[in-house]
């Protein structure tokens, strides 16, 4: 137990956080530590321990943990409370199926409204992704890239749902990079996607996005099948 307490303290630090920032600070610290692997699957994340580390009440801690549970980064286990969830699981395949439905529709709505600044912003994220090697930062930039292309969809509820699902993508990217020993991913799919969006080729862009997401889903499915066979 002492070793686990030391792990949380070492990974997250120990500092007094202003009450009005406590939830967001704790959520972001935990989220980054989970995504980059500093807090491995199965690590217990206890409310009182976090409250003590950051010098706050348990209320903002509880809300931060709820947010992370909603993002599938934590799961609640009987007799243990909140623990770091496995890096990849069966629900990841379903996440990609849902992403295909949501994101192709958002892209279809958004492309006719995208302007030169939107395209330039998306290309800027690609340039950053080409040189970035930190898993958590790759996930963040990937999310920003996709949202730049969907941003002009007039359906704001659709965009909110997509952002929730893109949190799952960040977990997949860490799984993909870690298990394959890669420092970064090729940006060929992203380049082709933004080129099609720039040229207002809606149907082509939608097909490219669907193939991009389905390839990721197949990689997860193959991995899970191999795991269950061993």
Automatic annotation (TrEMBL):
Record-linked Pfam families: FCD, GntR
Looking up InterPro entries in the UniProt record yields: GntR_C, TF_FadR/GntR_C, Tscrpt_reg_HTH_GntR, WH-like_DNA-bd_sf, WH_DNA-bd_sf
TM segment ranges:
none
- At the top level of its lineage, which domain of life is listed? Bacteria
The record's section on SMART domains has:
FCD (SM00895), HTH_GNTR (SM00345)
Sorted alphabetically, the keyword list is:
DNA-binding, Transcription, Transcription regulation
Q: Does the keyword Transcription regulation apply?
A: yes
In this protein, which residues make up the domain named HTH gntR-type? 20-87
The cross-references to PROSITE patterns, in alphabetical order and at most eight, read: HTH_GNTR
| Classification via PANTHER family | TRANSCRIPTIONAL REGULATOR, GNTR FAMILY, TRANSCRIPTIONAL REGULATORY PROTEIN
What is the official name of this protein in its record? GntR family transcriptional regulator
Q: Which organism is it from?
A: Pseudomonas farsensis
Q: What is the lineage of its organism?
A: Bacteria, Pseudomonadati, Pseudomonadota, Gammaproteobacteria, Pseudomonadales
């Amino acid at each position: 137990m002492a070793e686990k307490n030391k792990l949380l303290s070492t990974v997250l630090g120990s500092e007094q956080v202003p009450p009005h920032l406590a939830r967001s600070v704790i959520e972001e610290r935990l989220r980054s530590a989970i995504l980059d692997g500093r807090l491995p699957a199965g690590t217990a994340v206890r409310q009182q321990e976090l409250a003590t580390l950051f010098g706050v009440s348990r209320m903002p801690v509880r809300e931060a943990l709820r947010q992370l549970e909603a993002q599938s980064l934590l799961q609640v286990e009987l007799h243990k409370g909140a623990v770091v969830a496995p890096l990849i699981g069966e629900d990841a395949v379903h996440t990609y199926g849902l992403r295909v439905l949501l994101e192709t529709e958002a892209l279809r709505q958004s492309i006719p409204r995208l302007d030169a600044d939107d395209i330039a912003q998306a290309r800027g994220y690609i340039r950053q992704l080409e040189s970035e090697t930190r898993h958590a930062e790759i996930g963040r930039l990937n999310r920003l890239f996709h949202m730049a292309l969907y941003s002009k969809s007039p359906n704001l509820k659709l965009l909110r749902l997509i952002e929730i699902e893109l949190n799952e993508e960040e977990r997949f990217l860490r799984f993909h990079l870690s298990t394959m020993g890669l420092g970064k991913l090729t940006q060929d799919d992203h380049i082709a996607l933004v080129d099609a969006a720039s040229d207002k080729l809606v149907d082509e862009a939608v097909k490219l996005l669907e193939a991009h997401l389905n390839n990721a889903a197949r990689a997860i499915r193959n991995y899970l099948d191999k795991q269950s066979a061993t």
